[in-house]
Amino acid sequence: MSAPLLELREVTRSFPGDPEVRALRGIDLTVVDGDYLAIVGPSGSGKSTMLNVLGLLDRPTSGEYLLEDTSTTALGDEARTALRARVLGFVFQSFHLLPRRTVLENVLLPLIYSGAPRAERETRAREALHRVGLDHRIDFRPDVLSGGERQRVAVARAIVTRPRVVLADEPTGNLDGERTEEIMTLFEELHRGGMTLVVITHDTAVADRADRVVRITDGRLSEVS
Ligand code: ADP
Ligand code: MG
Q: pTM value?
C-alpha cells in the first residue's frame, strides 16, 4: 500500500454562533497516492467544510491534518500557500474563472508562482488545454463558452501546475448529463495517469465512478465502499 498523501486525524471544525455550528465532528480519513475517492452526503453535511480543510483553505478547530506526512497544523500562511500551490489543484461547482481574461490567461494564472519563464508557462498551459480538448478555445473569454467548456478550462487550470491531488467540490453540479459525462471521463483519464482525486458530489452516478466512496452525515464520516 502506498504512503498516505492526505490524512485527517480526529478533525473537527466548528463555526462560532448561537448556537455554534459543529460542521465536522471528528473526521478520520486517509487518502493514498493514486486514490480516486468520492465524498457524498446531503446538503449541509459538512462536505465543503471538509474540502476546504483538505485544500488548506481553512484550518481545523481541533485535530490534525497531514499532507505528504507533514503536519500542516503548525504551518504559517505562507508555508500553507506554497504547499497548496505545489501539491493541490481545485475544481469548483461554479468554475471560478476570471471573466475578463482569456481561457489561456486563466490557465496561466496558477503558474505565476512557479518561477518558470513565460514561454515555458505558456507551453504548459497549452498542453493542459490540449488535454481537456480545448485547443480551439484558448483565445476566447469564459463568458462565451458553455458550462461544460468552462469546467474543462477549470480542470486545465487545476492540472497545469502538475499537482499530486485534485480536489473537486460538486464539479458537475451545474452541468447537464452529457457535460457531466465529459468531466467524469476527463477525471478518469487523469486518474489513469496517476492523479489522486477527491471528488465531492451528491450525484450517486458521479460517486459510482470513483474507486472508493465515503459518506458524510452531520459532520461524521462512514465508509460506503
Ligand atoms: P455541504 O458542503 O455539505 O453542503 P458545508 O460544509 O458547506 O456543507 O456546511 C456544513 C455546515 O456548516 C452547514 O450547517 C453550514 O451552514 C455551516 N457552515 C459552513 N460554513 C460556515 C461559516 N463560514 N460560518 C458558519 N457556518 C458555516
Ligand atoms: Mg458544499
A: 0.95
Residue 12 cell numbers, joined? 473537527
* Residue 50 in domain: yes
Domain that holds residue 200: 34-57+77-223
Of all atoms in ligand 1, which is nearest to the CA of residue 41?
Answer: 3
Give a yes or no: residue 95 inside a domain. yes
CATH number at residue 212: 3.40.50.300
Sign of CA dihedral 16, 166, 204, 129: positive
Residues with Cβ within 8 Å of residue 159, at least 6 apart in sequence: 89, 128, 131, 166, 190, 195
Atom of ligand 1 at shortest range from CA of 49: 6
Ligand nearest to the CA of 20: 1
For the residues of 117-148, what is the DSSP string, one character each?
Answer: -HHHHHHHHHHHHHHTT-GGGTTS-GGGS-HH
H-helix segments, 65-216: 77-87, 103-108, 118-131, 147-159, 177-192, 204-207
Residue scoring higher pLDDT (18 or 113): 18
In one letter, which amino acid is 45?
Answer: S
Q: What is the pLDDT of residues 97-108, one digit of tens each?
A: 999 999 999 999
**Across-strand partners of 211?**
none
Total domains, the chain:
1
Closest Cα to atom 24 of ligand 1: 15
Distance 198 CA to ligand 1 centre (A): 19
Whether the CB of 124 sits within 6 Å of ligand 1: no
